[in-house]
Specification:
Largest sheet: 2 strands, antiparallel
Structural class: mainly alpha
Radius of gyration: 14 Å
Distance between the termini: 34 Å
Order of helices and strands: HEEHHH
Number of strands: 2
Shape: globular
Length: 98
Amino acid sequence: MSPTAYLDNWERFEYLRSIAQWDAKEGLDWGFMRTTGMFGAHLPEPSGWIRQELDREGDTHPLLTAGFLNGSAERLNTARNAIDEQFSRWSIQARWQN
């Protein structure tokens, strides 16, 4: 596996872990994820990946059919939106502190 593929997959794992953690109401501890966007719209790099996957496959996405978040696309999208929003706020704060 190339270093780029490894990093992409690691970030996807961390993103899905964060989604599951948020959904279970266990708080958040950010793993390493690159940031995309600028000017108040910072997103974790894997956000676009899962959004594109869900747009393409909807309820038949392998994560959902395997039972991730009880197979609920609504729960997954709610958690994804919350994670993206919190990550954006955290990222902006981190930038201003340095």
